[in-house]
Design goal:
By secondary structure, the protein is of the alpha/beta class. It has 3 domains: about 40 residues, 434 Repressor (Amino-terminal Domain) (Orthogonal Bundle), CATH 1.10.260.40; about 130 residues, Rossmann fold (3-Layer(aba) Sandwich); about 130 residues, 3-Layer(aba) Sandwich (Rossmann fold), CATH 3.40.50.2300. It is about 40% helix and about 15% strand. The protein is built from 11 helices and 12 strands. The chain has a 6-stranded parallel β-sheet, covered by helices on one side. α1 crosses α2, α7 runs parallel beside α8 and α9 packs across α10. The N and C termini lie far apart (about 70 Å).
C-alpha cells in the first residue's frame, strides 16, 4: 500500500480507516487488540498504519496521568437548538462546576444531522486532543459508536441503542417515575381524559416519559392511543401538538407535556382555543425550568436535577481518567413541583 501525504501530516485513526477501506470502528478494534476482526481486515488496517506512519498520540486506556487537561462535551443537536433549549446550558453548568474545581478545560463539540456526522467527531476524540468525553442529546436515528475509543466516555441519559454503548456508564433522571407522578397528579385531580404531548421517540427521555404516562393510565384503565401525540421537546411543537389533540379529542381535560417548553406551547394553544387552565384543562410539564414560574398560571411540573446530572457525569469521567474503576450507571430521582396549572 502506498499513501502519499503532505509534509508534517499527522495521521489520525480516521485517516487509517479511510486508507484501509474499513470503518473507524474496525480500525480501532485492530489498534486495541479486539479479537472480532477478520485476518484480512486486520492486515489491511496494519498495512495502512505502517504506510501512514500512524502512532497514537496519547496514553493508553487506564493511564492515571492527564496529558491534555481537557475533556469534550459532545452535544448531539443542531447548533440553533443548543442555544434555545435550556437543557444544554444547565448540563454545561453542572459540568463546569466540577471542572473549575480541578482546573480542567471544556471543549464543546456539536454533532450535525448529516450522513458523515460521525467521522469528524471520532477523528477529534481519537486524535489526542482530550482525555475523555461527555455525550448528551443522543438520538437513536444517528447513534455515536464510541465504546471502542481509547478514552473514557460517559453519557448524559441512557443511550437508545444500548447495544452499541453497553460498556459505557451513563447518568440519567428517573424519567419513567417522573412521568407517572405527573400523570397521577392529573388523575388524582379528577381529570377524566388525560392526554400527553410526548417527547421524540428516538431519545430515551422521550421514550421513558411516554412509558411512564402509559403505565399510570393503564393502571387507571384509561389508556387510549388517540390521547398520545409527539413533539420534539420544543415550544412550537407543543403548541402544534396541543392543537392537534384538541381537534382529535375535544373532551381532553388534562395534559401531561413531556417538557416544560412543550407545556408552554400547549398553554398558548389552549388559550387560543378559549380553554381555561386549570378550570377546563389541567396541565403538567416536565423539567422545572424557570419559565414555569412565570407562565399564566404557574406551571405544575416534574423537577429533574439537570445540573446535578452534569456534575455526576463529570465526576464519573474524571475518576475514569484517573484510573479508578468505572462505577455503575446512575439514575437520579425526580419530584413533582405543584403549582396552579394542575
Amino acid at each position: 500500500m502506498s499513501v502519499a501525504e503532505p509534509s508534517g501530516f499527522r495521521p489520525t485513526l480516521a485517516d487509517v480507516a479511510r486508507a484501509a477501506g474499513v470503518s473507524i470502528a474496525t480500525a480501532s478494534r485492530v489498534l486495541n487488540g479486539f479479537p472480532r476482526v477478520s485476518p484480512e481486515r486486520r492486515k489491511q488496517v496494519e498495512s495502512a498504519m505502517l504506510a501512514l506512519g500512524y502512532a497514537r498520540q496519547r496514553a493508553a486506556r487506564g493511564s492515571s496521568a492527564r496529558h491534555t487537561g481537557s475533556i469534550a462535551l459532545v452535544v448531539c443537536e443542531e447548533v440553533p437548538r443548543l442555544f434555545t433549549d435550556p437543557y444544554f446550558p444547565r448540563i454545561a453548568a453542572g459540568v463546569g462546576r466540577e471542572l473549575t474545581a480541578v482546573g480542567v478545560q471544556l471543549v464543546l463539540l456539536t454533532v450535525p444531522a448529516t450522513d458523515d456526522y460521525q467521522a469528524p467527531v471520532v477523528r477529534y476524540l481519537d486524535g489526542g486532543h482530550v482525555d475523555g468525553a461527555l455525550v448528551v442529546g443522543m438520538h437513536g436515528r444517528r447513534p455515536l459508536d464510541l465504546d471502542w475509543l481509547g478514552i473514557p466516555v460517559v453519557f448524559g441519559g441512557r443511550p437508545v441503542q444500548a447495544g452499541r454503548t453497553g460498556r459505557l456508564p451513563y447518568v440519567d433522571a428517573d424519567n419513567q417515575g417522573g412521568a407517572r407522578l405527573a400523570t397521577q397528579r392529573l388523575l388524582d385531580g379528577g381529570r377524566q381524559t388525560v392526554a400527553t404531548v410526548a417527547g421524540p421517540q428516538d431519545m430515551t427521555a422521550g421514550v421513558d416519559r411516554l412509558l411512564g404516562y402509559r403505565q399510570a393510565m393503564s393502571r387507571a384503565g384509561r389508556y387510549d392511543e388517540s390521547l398520545v401525540v409527539c413533539g420534539d421537546f420544543g415550544q412550537a411543537s407543543g403548541e402544534y401538538a396541543m392543537s392537534r389533540l384538541l381537534s382529535r379529542r375535544p373532551d381532553v381535560d388534562g395534559i401531561f407535556a413531556a417538557s416544560d417548553m412543550m407545556a408552554v406551547g400547549a398553554l398558548r394553544a389552549l388559550r387560543r382555543a378559549g380553554r381555561k387552565v386549570p378550570e377546563d384543562v389541567a396541565v403538567v410539564g416536565f423539567d422545572d425550568l424557570p419559565i414555569g414560574c412565570w407562565t399564566d398560571p404557574p406551571l405544575t411540573t416534574v423537577r429533574q436535577p439537570v445540573e446535578e446530572m452534569g456534575a455526576r457525569m463529570t465526576a464519573e469521567l474524571l475518576a475514569m481518567i484517573d484510573g479508578a474503576a468505572p462505577r455503575r450507571s446512575t439514575v437520579l430521582d425526580t419530584e413533582l413541583v405543584p403549582r396552579k396549572s394542575a
